[in-house]
Structures are given as structure tokens and as C-alpha cells.
Amino acid sequence: MNTLTMAKNEIFPMRKPKKWQTLLVREKNIKIMRWIRFRDRNLRKKFSILNHQNLLGASITFGSATMMIIGAGLYIEGMIPAWLAIVSNAIFASLLHEIEHDTIHNLYFKDNEKIQDILFWIVWIFRGNTVSPWYRRMIHTLHHKVSGNKEDIEERLIGNGMKIGILRLFAMIDGNISAILNFRKLAKEAPKFKKKEIVKESWPWLVVFYTLWYNFLGLNLIHYGNLILGSPISIPYPAILESVRTFLNTIAVIYMIPNWIRQSSIQIISSNMHYYGDVKNINHQTQVLNAWFLAPLHLFCFNFGSTHTIHHFVVNQPFYLRQMVTPYVHPAMKRYGIRFNDFESMFRANRYYAAKSQAG
Ligand SMILES: [Zn+2]
Ligand SMILES: [Zn+2]
Q: Is the peptide bond before 81 cis (omega within 30 degrees of 0)?
């Protein structure tokens, strides 16, 4: 100890560490879990409707699907503008995404596989740009077991662990580009990943969705590209092509763009909030991403970055309850060492520690 430090210690005697600062990681994790469960219990007592979980799950599913149909109808009838149909359908589709996730964890209709299958079909049809919910059940359950490791198919498929850059960006916003970039590595490193299986499990909705999506992008690229370049293709388009483009544009507003926005929002958040490569315990699996400027993304993924860490600690909580306990649980998470808004991790390909300071 040098003289300066000694002098400092005489003026400001070393403070005794707070009790929570000396806890072991395992003890801190248990404290966080207890906080979540405590707040969960209190809320369930206070609002008895929360105990009717099946009813809530079914109502949100049918309600959101109906609202998407109404949004589509109003837009087709010319009663609402395109942007409103897109925003509204993206939000309702994001609720369906949460329902899929909760049903994967058996939080609705636990003992009734048939009803779960109905819920799965609805959430898949209304959000076509995903693998089938039955396949996702396998990769998501695996995600909870091996989060942050090479075997974590679900997160690696959306770019988690990749270097920051243009390829990573495309992996986060386009499932097919991600497939091209990641399938081979996954087949080698994740024993549960079978290329044939995921292709089979994408049929039919993912295939239908992407066929429509790329035709929509392609035809509009030709159309607007031609206009911008001063119409070098002077021959008028065949009428059939133009009516296909108009049809696809309508489907895009009510279905494809909302789902692309929803999916990109959750994938950008999820892919960056999960740590990858040096994850040893639950405390290091995720960070909380709740910076104010992420609000536009959070609008379309039910505040995922803010609440998903809670889900890693306590799995059996429906999404709305996870959101409700958030304000109470975040202070405890901060105290027990969960990182908040660690944007630097994006430059470390989602590693928890900088490469040199493993002990961190
Ligand atoms: Zn989960
Ligand atoms: Zn996760």
C-alpha cells in the first residue's frame, strides 16, 4: 500500500461491504428468483383474474387474431391508412408470439394437447415467418438448458455469437440469409440440429410466407428501380404482373410487413441480450436491455429486452405477469450483478467478458 492510499484510508476508513456484495453468485441467483416469485405471488393475490391463466391465454390468442383480421379488413376497405394497419397488426402478432412461447412452456392448457395444438396452429398461421411451433418447442427448451453455448440452436439461428457487421445484421432480419450463414456451423457443433428436420418443420407456412415476401420485394424493386432510373424498361408490364404486384402489396401491408417488423424487432433484441461463448451460469446468460431508444423495437416484441432475463430465472410465468413484476425485480437484479444495457458486448460477439479479462 503506498503512502497516498494509506493517508486516504485514514481519512476515509474502508467501508464494510454490504451483505449482498459478499454473496456467492449462486446465492445471488436464488435471491433474484425469490424476488420474482414473491412479486408474482403478490400480484396473483391482488388480481384474482391472473389465476385464470387458460382463459387469459385463449382470450389473448383469439382476440389478437381477430384484431389482425379486423385491421386487415379496415385497410382493404380503405378505412385506415397502411401505416396504421402495419403497426396495429405487428403489435397483435407480437402478442401471438408471446402466446407461442408461453404455450411451449405449458403455461396454458397444460393437460390438453389438442387445445395447445389449436393455439400453435393459430399463432403459426398469423405469423408465418417462423419455424413450426412444435419444432420451436424443441429448440427453445434446449435454449434454456444450453443458453450461450454452441448447442444453443435457437439463438445462433438469429445471429447470437456472430461478429458485429453487415452479415450479422442480415442474419438478424432474414431467416434465409441466417440459414446460409449458420446452418453448416450448427450442423457441426450442435448435435440436435438436423438440416433436414428444420427444413421439414418450416413447411408450409414459412415457405408460403417467404415465397410471397421475396416476390413482393422483387416485383417492387423492379417497379421502383425502373421509375427511379427514368423508365428504361419502356414496354408496359404485362397486366397480370402489375395485378400480382398490387395483390402482394396488400398482403404485405396486412401480414408480411407487420410480421417482418415484429420478427426483426425481437431478433435484434434477443440476439444481442443473450451472452455467448463464455457463459458459465444463469447470471451470465443474459443482460437487461431497456435503454429508452430501444422503445420502437420493444413496441413490437412486448418489451422483450426488459423482461426476458426475468424469464431465464423463473420460467413458469406468463408474459403479462413477467411484465408486471419487472419494475419490482429490476432493482434487485441490478443489486445482484445482472448487467443492464451492456452495449459493448455487441463488439465482443456477445461474450460476457472481454477476451483478456476472463476473471472479470
Ligand atoms: Zn422460454
Ligand atoms: Zn433466452
A: no
CA–centroid distance, residue 144 to ligand 1 (Å): 7
Task: Average the pLDDT over each of 7-16, 148-157, 267-276, 344-353 and give the range with the smallest value.
Answer: 7-16
* Ligand 2 center–CA 90 separation, angstroms: 21
- What is the C-alpha separation between 58 and 63, in angstroms, rounded? 8
State in Å: Cα 84 to ligand 2 middle.
31
Query: What residues have CB less than 8 Å from 319, skipping those under 6 apart?
Result: 98, 99, 101, 102, 302, 307
Q: What's the sign of the alpha-carbon dihedral 271, 277, 283, 285?
A: positive
Q: Which three cell numbers stand for residue 233?
A: 424498361
229 Cα–ligand 2 center, Å = 45
Q: Where are the domains of the chain?
A: 37-348
Residue 230's pLDDT is what?
Answer: 81
Residue 174 Cα to ligand 2 middle (Å): 19
Rounded Cα gap, residues 226 and 38, in angstroms? 61
* pLDDT tens digits along 80-121: 999 999 999 999 999 999 999 999 999 999 999 999 999 999
Distance from Cα 271 to the centre of ligand 2, integer Å: 9
pLDDT tens, residue by residue, 42-71: 999 999 999 999 999 999 999 999 999 999
